[in-house]
Amino acid sequence: MLRVVFITGISGSGKSVALRTLEDAGYNCVDNLPVRFLHDFIAAAHDEGLQRVGVSIDARSSGAIASLPGTINALRALGTEIRVVFLDADTGTLVQRYSESRRRHPLTDKLFHEGVAPSVEACIAHERELLGPLRELGHVIDTTGLTPSQLRSWVRNVVQADTVPLVLTFESFAFKESVPLDADLMFDVRCLPNPHYDPVLRPLTGRDAPVANFLAAIPSVGRMIDDIAAFIRTWLPEYMQDTRSYLTVAIGCTGGTHRSVYVVEQLAAMFAGQGQVLVRHRAQKQFDLYDPGGGPTEAPPLARP
């Protein structure tokens, strides 16, 4: 069966890096394919016996973007396996990237001809509006703060996980660094006791046994994890029934080092049998396919009331 991965998203968020990653993974890739040629391209790929195809579509095809969701649904109805990866980043990061690269935003001329001052911020805002429907079609990756090598790791994990019905991602983050844009569900664990205030635990992370032991002994930590897990178990079937292929659960604490990391590791272990599980620790720059044998040193059982 032909597998098609669409790379789309906001300009400057890393689509070129993602497309090159697909090429390295053996995909036949096309950059900025006009939407009107999509049917013919997929048909030709079928005829040539290709198994993996990557297509990048962005705001430069603005005139036909509105029809793309319908086109993708029609192709899926014909039996084509299609995954959509939407890349995004916060506006400040995108502006900085354009400033460093000294490149023009691809919508600059369009806004100028429409009588709008084509600042980078205005172009980004217009692009978000144009691509909004595509964001709902697939897996969102927030590239804010990521290096190209880290983004390549994330994309490789998504591609490797494409053979299962649902990709469930647990992601830890630091509220002081802002909320991740790729979160479908978000939980705040800052109310839990913070190992940061223990000088011995401060330099460690939630993946280290001393921190895991500290948190596992606190009943409220266990209750928080149980409540989050119960919510996910209750609603996960509904997300899957909605033909969703990806669900990202973000867990945040102040520094993204101890509590959120520990909770993510525990949840990943609990849901290891629910499709493909990915683990991301933004503050630690760790992005992995979950390996039940590769987590932190085993902690004692969670304390329960």
Automatic annotation (TrEMBL):
Keywords: ATP-binding, GTP-binding, Nucleotide-binding
Amino-acid positions noted as binding ATP in the UniProt annotation, renumbered to this chain: G9, I10, S11, G12, S13, G14, K15, S16
Annotated ranges, domain RapZ C-terminal: 167-283
Keyword Nucleotide-binding: yes
Annotated ranges, domain RapZ-like N-terminal: 3-161
Residues the record lists as binding GTP: D58, A59, R60, S61
Residue ranges crossing the lipid bilayer per the database entry: none
HAMAP family: RapZ_like
Name of the molecule in the record: RNase adapter RapZ
Species of origin: Pigmentiphaga daeguensis
Source taxonomy: Bacteria, Pseudomonadati, Pseudomonadota, Betaproteobacteria, Burkholderiales
